[in-house]
Amino acid sequence: MTDLSVIILAGGKSSRMGEDKALIPMQGIPLLKKVCNVAKSCTDTIYIVTPWPERYQNLHLPECEFIPEISTQTQGPLVGFVQGLEKVKTEWVLLLACDLPNLQIEVLQNWVKLVDTVESENIALLVKNTKGWEPLCGFYRCKCLPLLQDFINQGGRSFQEWLKLYPVAVLPLSSPDMLFNCNTPEDVQQFLLN
Length: 194
What we know:
The protein is an alpha/beta fold and 194 residues long. It has helices spanning 31-39, 77-85, 105-115, 145-153, 159-163, 185-193, and strands at 4-9, 25-26, 29-30, 46-50, 64-68, 92-97, 124-129, 132-141, 168-170.
Protein backbone atom coordinates (compact mmCIF):
# COMPACT_ATOMS: atom_id res chain seq x y z
CA MET A 1 0.00 0.00 0.00
CA THR A 2 1.35 3.42 -0.97
CA ASP A 3 2.36 5.71 1.90
CA LEU A 4 -0.30 8.34 1.19
CA SER A 5 -2.35 11.11 2.80
CA VAL A 6 -5.01 13.32 1.23
CA ILE A 7 -5.27 17.10 1.54
CA ILE A 8 -8.57 18.68 0.50
CA LEU A 9 -8.52 22.44 -0.04
CA ALA A 10 -11.74 24.19 1.04
CA GLY A 11 -10.50 27.74 1.38
CA GLY A 12 -11.76 29.57 -1.68
CA LYS A 13 -14.07 32.56 -1.36
CA SER A 14 -16.63 31.05 -3.81
CA SER A 15 -17.22 34.58 -5.13
CA ARG A 16 -18.39 33.38 -8.57
CA MET A 17 -20.76 30.87 -6.94
CA GLY A 18 -22.32 33.41 -4.58
CA GLU A 19 -22.40 30.84 -1.74
CA ASP A 20 -19.95 28.36 -0.22
CA LYS A 21 -19.46 25.78 -2.97
CA ALA A 22 -18.21 23.17 -0.48
CA LEU A 23 -21.74 23.04 0.98
CA ILE A 24 -23.66 22.88 -2.31
CA PRO A 25 -25.56 19.58 -2.51
CA MET A 26 -24.67 17.36 -5.45
CA GLN A 27 -27.06 14.42 -5.76
CA GLY A 28 -28.09 15.21 -2.18
CA ILE A 29 -24.56 15.21 -0.73
CA PRO A 30 -22.64 18.43 0.07
CA LEU A 31 -19.72 18.74 -2.34
CA LEU A 32 -17.04 18.66 0.38
CA LYS A 33 -18.51 15.46 1.86
CA LYS A 34 -18.68 13.92 -1.63
CA VAL A 35 -14.95 14.63 -2.18
CA CYS A 36 -14.12 13.26 1.31
CA ASN A 37 -16.02 10.04 0.54
CA VAL A 38 -13.91 9.53 -2.59
CA ALA A 39 -10.70 10.37 -0.69
CA LYS A 40 -11.53 7.65 1.86
CA SER A 41 -11.17 5.07 -0.92
CA CYS A 42 -7.46 5.98 -1.17
CA THR A 43 -6.35 6.42 2.46
CA ASP A 44 -7.51 6.79 6.06
CA THR A 45 -5.46 9.97 6.54
CA ILE A 46 -7.43 12.95 5.27
CA TYR A 47 -6.84 16.62 6.07
CA ILE A 48 -9.19 19.47 5.15
CA VAL A 49 -7.47 22.86 4.95
CA THR A 50 -9.97 25.68 5.45
CA PRO A 51 -10.26 29.06 7.20
CA TRP A 52 -13.75 28.01 8.38
CA PRO A 53 -13.61 24.57 10.06
CA GLU A 54 -16.68 25.43 12.15
CA ARG A 55 -18.70 25.92 8.94
CA TYR A 56 -18.30 22.23 8.10
CA GLN A 57 -18.82 20.67 11.54
CA ASN A 58 -22.35 19.53 10.67
CA LEU A 59 -21.14 17.50 7.69
CA HIS A 60 -20.11 14.66 10.05
CA LEU A 61 -16.61 13.98 8.74
CA PRO A 62 -15.07 12.15 11.74
CA GLU A 63 -12.43 10.52 9.52
CA CYS A 64 -11.08 13.94 8.46
CA GLU A 65 -8.82 16.27 10.42
CA PHE A 66 -9.40 19.98 9.91
CA ILE A 67 -6.37 22.24 9.53
CA PRO A 68 -7.40 25.86 10.17
CA GLU A 69 -5.98 27.86 7.28
CA ILE A 70 -4.20 31.01 8.41
CA SER A 71 -5.34 33.50 5.85
CA THR A 72 -3.28 36.32 4.40
CA GLN A 73 -4.08 39.07 1.93
CA THR A 74 -2.30 37.26 -0.90
CA GLN A 75 -3.85 33.90 -0.13
CA GLY A 76 -4.16 31.24 -2.76
CA PRO A 77 -4.30 27.47 -3.00
CA LEU A 78 -0.50 27.18 -2.83
CA VAL A 79 -0.45 28.74 0.63
CA GLY A 80 -3.25 26.46 1.86
CA PHE A 81 -1.39 23.48 0.40
CA VAL A 82 1.77 24.40 2.34
CA GLN A 83 -0.20 24.67 5.58
CA GLY A 84 -1.57 21.18 4.95
CA LEU A 85 1.81 19.72 3.91
CA GLU A 86 3.36 20.90 7.18
CA LYS A 87 1.13 18.33 8.97
CA VAL A 88 1.56 15.39 6.60
CA LYS A 89 3.80 12.50 7.67
CA THR A 90 3.49 10.26 4.60
CA GLU A 91 5.78 10.08 1.57
CA TRP A 92 3.04 11.17 -0.85
CA VAL A 93 -0.04 13.36 -0.64
CA LEU A 94 -3.03 13.42 -2.96
CA LEU A 95 -4.19 17.03 -3.28
CA LEU A 96 -7.87 17.57 -4.11
CA ALA A 97 -9.98 20.70 -4.51
CA CYS A 98 -13.34 20.60 -2.72
CA ASP A 99 -15.26 21.40 -5.92
CA LEU A 100 -14.74 18.23 -8.01
CA PRO A 101 -18.13 16.45 -8.24
CA ASN A 102 -17.04 13.97 -10.95
CA LEU A 103 -14.18 12.28 -9.08
CA GLN A 104 -14.16 8.55 -9.78
CA ILE A 105 -12.97 6.14 -7.11
CA GLU A 106 -11.74 3.59 -9.63
CA VAL A 107 -9.59 6.15 -11.50
CA LEU A 108 -8.04 7.47 -8.28
CA GLN A 109 -7.30 3.95 -7.03
CA ASN A 110 -5.58 3.15 -10.32
CA TRP A 111 -3.58 6.36 -10.03
CA VAL A 112 -2.48 5.41 -6.50
CA LYS A 113 -0.92 2.24 -7.98
CA LEU A 114 1.21 4.41 -10.30
CA VAL A 115 2.72 6.48 -7.48
CA ASP A 116 5.29 3.81 -6.59
CA THR A 117 6.56 3.77 -10.19
CA VAL A 118 7.40 7.50 -10.33
CA GLU A 119 11.09 8.31 -10.87
CA SER A 120 12.66 9.79 -7.74
CA GLU A 121 13.48 13.18 -9.34
CA ASN A 122 9.78 13.93 -10.00
CA ILE A 123 8.17 16.08 -7.31
CA ALA A 124 4.63 15.37 -8.50
CA LEU A 125 2.40 13.12 -10.60
CA LEU A 126 -0.27 15.21 -12.36
CA VAL A 127 -2.61 15.34 -15.34
CA LYS A 128 -1.47 17.72 -18.08
CA ASN A 129 -3.85 19.51 -20.43
CA THR A 130 -3.50 22.21 -23.08
CA LYS A 131 -3.38 24.95 -20.41
CA GLY A 132 -0.72 23.24 -18.31
CA TRP A 133 -0.85 21.02 -15.23
CA GLU A 134 -3.99 20.14 -13.26
CA PRO A 135 -2.55 20.89 -9.82
CA LEU A 136 -5.68 20.43 -7.68
CA CYS A 137 -6.23 16.74 -8.40
CA GLY A 138 -2.90 14.96 -8.25
CA PHE A 139 -0.04 13.58 -6.21
CA TYR A 140 2.93 15.38 -4.64
CA ARG A 141 5.98 14.07 -2.82
CA CYS A 142 5.85 15.56 0.67
CA LYS A 143 9.57 16.31 0.46
CA CYS A 144 8.65 19.11 -1.97
CA LEU A 145 7.58 21.24 1.03
CA PRO A 146 10.86 23.24 1.35
CA LEU A 147 10.84 23.94 -2.41
CA LEU A 148 7.30 25.21 -2.16
CA GLN A 149 8.05 27.33 0.92
CA ASP A 150 11.02 28.94 -0.89
CA PHE A 151 8.84 29.72 -3.91
CA ILE A 152 6.14 31.34 -1.73
CA ASN A 153 8.72 33.27 0.31
CA GLN A 154 9.98 34.76 -2.95
CA GLY A 155 6.45 35.98 -3.75
CA GLY A 156 5.30 33.03 -5.89
CA ARG A 157 1.59 32.20 -5.81
CA SER A 158 0.99 30.21 -9.01
CA PHE A 159 0.98 26.42 -9.08
CA GLN A 160 1.79 26.51 -12.82
CA GLU A 161 4.87 28.74 -12.30
CA TRP A 162 6.12 26.57 -9.43
CA LEU A 163 5.62 23.32 -11.35
CA LYS A 164 7.66 24.68 -14.28
CA LEU A 165 10.72 24.67 -12.01
CA TYR A 166 10.83 20.91 -11.32
CA PRO A 167 10.31 17.54 -13.06
CA VAL A 168 6.69 16.31 -12.93
CA ALA A 169 5.45 12.90 -14.10
CA VAL A 170 2.29 12.76 -16.21
CA LEU A 171 -0.86 11.01 -15.03
CA PRO A 172 -3.03 9.35 -17.69
CA LEU A 173 -6.65 10.53 -17.84
CA SER A 174 -9.08 8.96 -20.29
CA SER A 175 -12.15 10.94 -19.15
CA PRO A 176 -11.27 14.66 -18.79
CA ASP A 177 -14.75 15.44 -17.39
CA MET A 178 -13.56 13.84 -14.13
CA LEU A 179 -11.70 17.11 -13.45
CA PHE A 180 -14.76 19.30 -14.07
CA ASN A 181 -14.98 21.79 -11.21
CA CYS A 182 -17.98 23.76 -9.97
CA ASN A 183 -17.25 27.48 -9.74
CA THR A 184 -20.56 29.05 -10.78
CA PRO A 185 -24.30 28.30 -10.51
CA GLU A 186 -24.14 27.47 -14.24
CA ASP A 187 -21.50 24.80 -13.52
CA VAL A 188 -23.84 23.25 -10.93
CA GLN A 189 -26.68 23.17 -13.47
CA GLN A 190 -24.38 21.61 -16.07
CA PHE A 191 -23.35 18.91 -13.61
CA LEU A 192 -26.94 18.15 -12.61
CA LEU A 193 -28.00 17.87 -16.26
CA ASN A 194 -25.29 15.31 -17.12
